[in-house]
Write a structure and sequence with these properties.
seven-stranded parallel beta sheet; mainly beta; elongated; 44% strand
Length: 415
């Protein structure tokens, strides 16, 4: 096994390649990518074909590439062969200046072995040059990649109007990125949680949330939204690849949004409407998540919990003996009502019995009242806070679960 640290550069002489028959872990970061390149890069005139390729052989397994750049190599730049599990995973990588196909996958052995390229850029804008090719035995998951043009990769049957680099039929490439600026995009989502009480059939409720681009250097934010059920948890996302496991991402029947993807210029904000319905849902509480993916390398996945309580007199508070929904991970819901003049409440979801501590601060960072500290069983619970008498203003509630910070909510107090 070979592990490369962030910021490492490997330069190759002509006819030399990196051949992996074991395990290679090349995990950089946004500020310190790992570079595979020509010996002339940085000290001469590098060109396509200056060296061979990164070759992952049939006995290699568990190879991981994150924040890597592969350039000025041969045809293909990256060659993957064989079906050893687990398959290789690429994320936030850039392949460019090759002398032909950028990545080739062969001898896959069917759908049980699927290499992945996610949040990566195939930097060629010619549809005659392929970003990824596969033989008849192989499949590749290459969702959320940039293919050299906003129109996506060229594929005669699935995206004939695409003018980016081509992709084979057995490559999953939808959805794709319309830009390749993942290192500097900055996304902001508000509010960070949504809740609905007293939801009854035939009376849908709607609200909205905002997604903003806070980049200061001109980068675009490219985002897309998926839904997930209550059993989803961050463990279902591979940290290096920042991708959800598809089986855990489902269509939530009582939840819909008006916009599932978009691109934001620096300083822009989009408002997305969300509607919930009680139709077909049992009386009681239900929880789902909006998974907001983006090309922000720091916050590539923002999770927004959405709670509903079905029933004419149903509020999101759990009493003794009530049925608790299964919860996949800790989440700290929004303040309601907000603004408030007296009482405010927060919903907190717990996958297991835990010690919960909620502290409230003013804008100067001073404690307001005594913190709430309680041990709660698994499920969704409501914590109530009383606003200080005669003190309008903005406050912040911070939650800790078993001593670990899990979230902060903004409270506006009016008089």
């Amino acid at each position: 096994k070979l592990q490369l640290d962030p910021g490492v550069t490997l330069k190759f002489n002509p006819s030399c390649s990196l051949v992996v028959n074991g395990t290679l872990q090349a995990v950089g970061d946004a500020s310190h990518p790992i570079l595979f390149t020509s010996f002339r890069d940085g000290s001469g005139s590098p060109a396509a074909g200056n060296w061979g390729q990164v070759s992952l052989g049939s006995t290699s397994l568990g190879n991981q590439f994150s924040y890597c750049q592969v350039r000025y190599g041969g045809n293909p730049l990256v060659a993957i062969s064989g079906a050893s599990l687990p398959p290789p995973a690429f994320s936030y990588c850039q392949l460019d200046h090759g002398s032909g196909t950028l990545a080739s996958v062969t001898n896959g052995g069917g759908t049980a072995w699927v290499p992945s390229f996610h949040y990566s850029c195939f930097a060629t804008s010619s549809k005659s040059t392929c970003g990824i090719t596969c033989d008849a035995t192989s499949h590749v998951d290459a969702r959320y990649c940039y293919w050299g043009n906003a129109s996506g990769p060229y594929n005669a049957s699935r995206n004939a109007s695409g003018t980016g680099s081509c992709a084979s039929d057995s490559v999953t490439f939808q959805p794709w990125w319309s830009v390749c600026q993942g290192d500097t995009a900055r996304i902001s989502v508000w509010p960070t949680g949504l809740g609905f009480d007293n939801l009854i059939a035939g009376h849908d409720q709607s609200t909205s949330f905002q997604i903003s681009n806070q980049s200061t250097n001109g980068s675009l934010v490219d985002f897309w939204i998926e839904e997930a059920g209550p059993a989803w948890s961050p463990e279902h996302a591979q940290p290096a690849a920042r991708e959800p496991v598809p089986q855990q991402v489902v269509d939530v029947p009582w939840l819909s949004v008006t916009q599932s993807s978009g691109v934001l210029a620096p300083g822009d904000t989009t408002t997305i409407s969300l509607t919930v319905t009680a139709q077909g849902q049992s009386i009681g509480q239900h929880l789902a998540f909006l998974l907001i993916h983006s090309n922000d390398p720091v916050s590539s996945l923002v999770v927004v919990p959405v709670w509903i309580c079905v029933g004419a007199d149903c509020i999101l508070a759990v009493g003794p003996g009530e049925t608790q929904p299964s919860v996949g991970f800790v989440s700290f819901g929004p303040c309601r009502p907000n603004p408030t003049s007296a009482l405010a409440s927060f919903d907190i979801a717990l996958p297991a019995a835990s010690e919960v501590r909620v502290s409230v601060y003013d804008v100067a960072g001073r404690h307001v009242g005594e913190p709430t500290s309680v041990v709660l069983p698994a499920g969704i619970h409501r914590i109530v806070w009383r606003a200080p008498d005669g003190r309008a203003g903005i406050y912040f509630a911070r939650a800790q679960v078993d001593g670990r910070f899990v979230g902060q909510q903004r409270i506006v107090v009016i008089r």
